[in-house]
Amino acid sequence: MIHMCCKRPIVHILLVLFIFLIIPVAARQKKPVTAQQGKSVTEARNWYDGFMFNDKSYTFEFIRVLGASAGGGSDLGECIETARHICDGDDESWYREWMKRADRLYEMAQKWEKEGHTVSARKTYLRACNYYRSASFYMDEPEKRALAVAAWKRSRECFLSAISSFPYVKSVRIPYESTTLPGYYIICSDKAEKHPLLIIQTGFDGTGEELFFGYVAGARERGYDCLIFEGPGQGEPLRLQNLHFRHDWEHVVTPVVDYALTLPGIDRQRIALMGLSFGGYLAPRAAAFEHRLKACIANGGVYSFAETMVSKMPADFCRLIETDPDRFNRELQEGIKHNPNARWGVNNGMWTFGAQSPAEYYRKVKPYTLENVAGRITCATLVLDSEDDIFMQGQAEKLYKALNCPKSFYRFTREETAQAHCQMGATGISEAVIFNWLDQVLK
To answer: In this structure, which CATH number among 2.60.40.10, 3.40.50.12370, 1.20.1600.10, 1.20.1440.110 belongs to the domain 31-158?
Structure first.
């Protein structure tokens, strides 16, 4: 057995690196890191390496915000100027600077709305919405969650203010068990003919509002209506209703499909479901049991979420989850102190899965596998992968191989600049591949 002791923090850090498959963060810095301080263009493996931050998690979250510009969720100068004031790896700094940017835009949007500048107010509200979401991202430790919830509330408030002048976007409530789930219904046109419907859901940490900045515009241009929803463990259901993730996601999606069939203008024979990130497990799981779906898109595909959590941990340490959970919790918490991605992953996981400790969280993820489930999917399924996916590496291929239905596989590459998780920062090529496939399946 590997000997581990809380007096040897380097062992803890190495364990976390095994778990999350990322390189260590750079040393703490008093000033933000710029691209010039990082790798040169010729040295960088990916187009975003060393872009504003050295820490991989901060880099990814930055291009996540920046990539939303395609749907009106950010602006280049605002993002870069904000990032320049963030200290690499400092979660409080990240929160503070995005909040400052969002607050400024929120005040501007309110002023312009009162003055009757509807379009200017709407666009400004949308950017503020996404900046508030980003501000809340690393505020998931128990003692900081009140800040996360407050920022999320302002994010949603901004979005609702923005869509109040959008005639094609409607906020909806979807019946679910003894409560309702929040969603947004977006119509492509008011023409009389029936439209195909794309249901879109997020994953481990996104919000319904964020989804609006990704694929909605492309869907509308191609004649698709969209229904965005948040389920347990996500957005409002987590923050206001205290609902946590459940592995049997069909019990979430079936009520969503029931609701979709009540919408006017929907072609009941052309309903597709797309899940992003951890949604790459949730959507296929639902499709295995909800056979009214004509198509399913897993971006990226996840065969076993449980496997991504434990596959790279030393076996002896992994066994502590059951044999000595207190020691597991203690040593893991020590190891993640200086690793933003690992720290966020554990804390967000405990929150969204309703766990009181890391060991309990790791036990809760065990049922989240598509083993003996993927083969039950009957609708056409598109499994997407990204060459530099730092979260779900290798999972998409495993899911694709387990499918017996009509299936397609696509790996986004560095040459396409779409190699990041969920093709972050490359909405154009991602949208094209997805809708080209969907057009063929639903035509």
So the answer is: 1.20.1440.110
**Fold (topology level) of 168-304+368-442:** Rossmann fold (3.40.50)
pLDDT per 10-residue tile (average), the chain, 443 residues: 35 38 36 45 78 95 96 97 97 98 98 98 98 97 97 98 95 98 92 89 96 94 96 98 98 98 94 98 98 98 90 84 94 89 94 97 96 98 96 94 98 97 96 98 90
What lies within 8 Å, CB to CB, of 439 at 6+ separation is: 222
CA dihedral 291, 206, 410, 368 (to 10 degrees): -60
CA 90, 92, 95 angle in degrees (round to 5)? 110
pTM of the complete model: 0.89
How far apart, in whole angstroms, are the C-alpha atoms of residue 339 and residue 232?
A: 27
Whole-number Å distance between alpha carbons of 171 and 169: 7
Which residues fall within 8 angstroms of residue 360, CB to CB, at 6 or more apart? 325, 350
